[in-house]
Design a protein that fits this description.
heterodimer; A: 491 residues; alpha/beta; Rossmann fold; six-stranded parallel sheet; four-stranded mixed sheet; 23 helices; B: 251 residues; 2 domains; four-stranded parallel sheet; 8 strands; globular; binds iron/sulfur cluster; 4Fe-4S (chain A); electron transport (chain A)
Chain lengths: 491, 251
């Protein structure tokens, strides 16, 4: 398995494997159900949760509406605090900027605190191509990196692994990357954590360059904020001489006061904790304390295009809490890898086809990776109506339409492979405008009802249905005929 | 009171018994029921699959057929949610696309008058005991669109609890989607089937004879899965339970 998601098959195909893997399904079911129950409790403790949710939504919407102003303000405050701001329109540009910055330090390795933005752009691979090794220091990220695997969850990227698998990965791979795992390592959590601690400690003390993401950026002071559970991130942020933070432009909040809302809703939604264990904030540079040089790379990579879409832009409110993944019945069965992106689950299903467009097979299939049950919307702490955006993106897939790509308006053609469905939908619409046609169809079905297979594989899309479910029998008389015959049972 | 029955295209074609049960139940409660023969389909499958433009004339047709009635009652949580939740959105989107208020104005009258059956019984008629008798062990599956779309809450449970002879048992993981999702069950058949199988296993663990819901589409999927897994349990629409009496018991 490679570290990137390029060239993934469509979602149903990618999900097929996971659905039929009982270990994976067991791991996922256990993990998501445990956190789901905990989250519910943590949220129930807060009496004004609905208000907090609404406040989070409004702060984000307001910020997105004035994003240009706040970004300028942020740049000014970061610069005033001694930081250097870079703007990256897309993944290539961001990778180029970071690679140059690392090269300029003369170093050939960097330590990283978990950052989804850098995974989104494939930074590790780009650095590797330039001869620079990037070491992930978040425990779950470390497991993914050592296992030459891909993340499958926003918060718990190694959610699909159990302890035994992790032990094997540590024992086999750690020596290739630095300090080897201790002899006779077992799969107890304490031993695994100690092995990771020793391995990582060595890297923290050696590294001169740190690369991070950020959960929030405060425009008024130019402060960046990372919330994490292990403290490894804090080491990355404070020990190196140079710190490079790569952050999506939508992560901005206007003021410190706004943070108050998210520092309540984020931990409760994600890890079901009342407060986050490590909340680190850094503002530019300070003499004699922390990194001497600080670079902020502001990443667009499809975000302004997403912002141009009236319905879809709400996806940019996301604070990456992963609550929607943990309640999603589809994620639970399909696993994170099937979504073909660092953003899996319901949020991934609406974010990836917007950031990357719907041209590839996987991106065109993601809006359909949901039964529209609405559980994701219900838990989302910033009230993103994910089902609404899914349907909106389905429309884009089947009907095409105007979108913004790299700042320009373009008209998309409908995606391939929907011609038969479109014809069927049109025919059905035609019939449904004509009650007589509906009736004729029903009568035909009733008259031929003994011929309808309930178990035989049907042709076409019906096959998928009839392979695992029996079809209902067709009744002898549709309701409307009964109604007309008896006038609603009166005759 | 005179109401229009919006039966839905699925019920009309495949589940006429549910329609007859609604008529019987409402008539017993003193409601005059009409079935406008011109009704067809609310357009939910079209809308949810991404064919919003195809949905618009269907919504208009719905409004033409049902606009005049005092109330519109439907035994389907998802079709009810389509009208109540999504018709206004159709109007808004048309407006946003610069096509004026026409669609929003045409659809406005039917939106607040459309009720899912259990909602109509509890909120409009103000009854929870509908005089039904159904001596069976039953578990209830709250379908997603009824639960989260319409916010049916405990209305169906209250109605079931008042049924004579009925023993209601809680369904583990009740609020989880059964995996139908309309065209989702075709496009993502593997995942849908896995969700359906889990739902059936949870239902089986209750020892109930009957799994009941307020939506035949979900029941079609759950029932089809039950048959395939050779489960003893039967899927039954809540209307058929509520219509059942000592004199005329439902199967
Ligand atoms: S969409 Fe909402 S629930 Fe999902 S990760 Fe983002 S903020 Fe959390």
């Amino acid at each position: 398995m490679s570290g990137t998601f390029v060239g993934m098959p469509a979602f149903p195909k990618a999900a097929h494997e996971a659905v039929n893997n009982p270990t994976l399904r067991g791991n996922l079911r256990h993990a998501t159900h445990t956190i789901r129950a905990k989250r519910e409790k943590a949220v129930a403790e807060v009496s004004d949760w609905a208000e907090l949710r609404e406040a989070g939504k409004r702060i984000k919407d307001h910020t997105l509406r004035h994003l240009d102003d706040y970004l300028v303000q942020l740049e000014e405050s970061v610069t005033a605090a001694g930081g250097i701001v870079h703007w990256a329109a897309d993944a290539d540009e961001a990778n180029r900027i970071v690679t140059e910055l690392v090269k300029a330090t003369g170093e050939s390795e960097v330590v990283k605190v978990k950052s989804m933005a850098t995974q989104e752009i494939g930074l590790n691979e780009a650095l590797e191509a330039a001869g620079i090794h990037a070491y992930e220091t978040d425990l779950a990220e470390l497991i993914v990196q050592l296992g030459k695997d891909r993340p499958s969850h926003i918060l718990v990227p190694a959610i699909h692994r159990n302890r035994g698998e992790i032990r094997d990965i540590f024992a086999k791979e750690m020596s290739e990357w630095g300090r080897p795992a201790p002899e006779g390592l077992t799969d107890t959590p304490a031993e695994l954590a100690e092995a990771a601690r020793l391995h990582l400690r060595e890297k923290f003390l050696r590294a001169k360059v740190g690369v991070s993401g950020a959960n929030f950026m405060v425009a008024e002071t130019g402060t960046l904020v990372v919330v994490e559970s292990e403290g490894n991130g804090r080491m990355c942020l404070t020990l190196p001489e140079t710190l490079i933070s790569v952050v999506g432009i939508e992560k901005i909040v206007p003021t410190w006061r706004d943070l108050e809302v998210f520092l309540q809703t984020l931990p409760r939604s994600s890890t079901a904790e009342r407060m986050n264990p490590y909340t680190s904030t850094w503002t530019g540079t300070t003499d004699g304390d922390g990194p001497k040089t600080f670079h902020l790379v502001l990443l667009d990579n499809g975000r302004t295009d997403t912002l141009a879409d009236e319905v879809g832009r709400q996806a940019l409110r996301c604070i990456r809490c992963s609550a929607c993944l943990n309640v999603c019945p589809v994620y639970e069965r399909a696993g994170g890898h099937a979504y073909g992106s660092v953003y899996p689950g319901p949020i991934g299903a609406i974010l990836s086809p917007q950031l990357r467009g719907t041209a590839s097979e996987i991106d065109a299939s993601l809006p359909y990776a949901s039964s529209l049950c609405g559980a994701c919307y219900e838990v989302c702490p910033v009230a993103i109506d994910i089902p609404e955006v899914l349907v909106h993106l389905r429309e884009r897939v089947v009907q095409g339409g105007e979108v913004t790509r790299e700042g320009n308006k373009v008209v998309l053609k409908p995606a391939k492979g929907h011609a038969a469905e479109r014809a069927a939908m049109r025919a059905a619409r035609w019939a449904f405008a004509r009650p007589g046609a509906v009736r004729a169809g029903q009568r035909l079905a009733s008259r031929t009802r003994r011929l309808h297979p309930r178990r035989l594989p049907l042709p076409g899309p019906g096959k998928a249905w009839s392979e695992t479910r029996d079809l209902p029998p067709v009744p002898a008389e549709p309701f409307r005929d009964w109604w007309q015959r008896t006038q609603g049972g009166a005759k | 009171m005179r109401v229009a029955l919006f039966l839905t295209c699925v019920n009309d074609t495949l589940y006429p018994d549910t329609g007859r049960a609604v008529v019987k139940l409402l008539t017993r409660l003193g409601v005059e029921v009409d079935f406008p023969m011109a009704q067809t389909c609310c357009g939910q499958a079209h809308y949810n699959t991404g064919y919003r433009h195809e949905t618009e004339p269907m919504a208009r047709h719905f409004s033409d057929v049902f606009g005049e009635y005092e109330a519109i009652v439907t035994p389907s949580g998802s079709c009810g949610a389509m009208v109540r939740e999504l018709y206004p959105r159709l109007g808004e989107r048309a407006r946003a696309e610069g096509r004026g208020d026409g669609l929003a104005t045409a659809l406005a009258p039917v939106v607040p008058k459309t009720y899912e059956l259990t909602e109509f019984l509890v909120d409009v008629l103000g009854v929870t005991d509908v005089g039904a008798c159904y001596p069976h062990k039953v578990t209830y599956h709250p379908t997603c669109h009824g639960l989260r779309g319409l916010g049916l809450g405990d209305r169906p449970r209250r109605l079931l609890q008042a049924v004579k002879g009925l023993e209601l048992v809680e369904l583990p993981g009740a609020e989880e989607c059964c995996g139908f999702g309309g065209t989702f069950s075709l496009k993502n058949a593997d995942v849908s089937a896995a969700m359906g199988a889990d739902k059936v296993r949870n239902a089986e663990s209750t020892g109930a004879e009957v799994l009941c819901a307020a939506d035949n589409s979900c029941l079609m999927h759950i029932g089809g899965t039950m048959a395939r897994l050779s489960t003893e349990m039967r899927p039954v629409h809540i209307a058929e339970i509520l219509a059942s009496t000592e004199e005329e018991p439902a199967a």
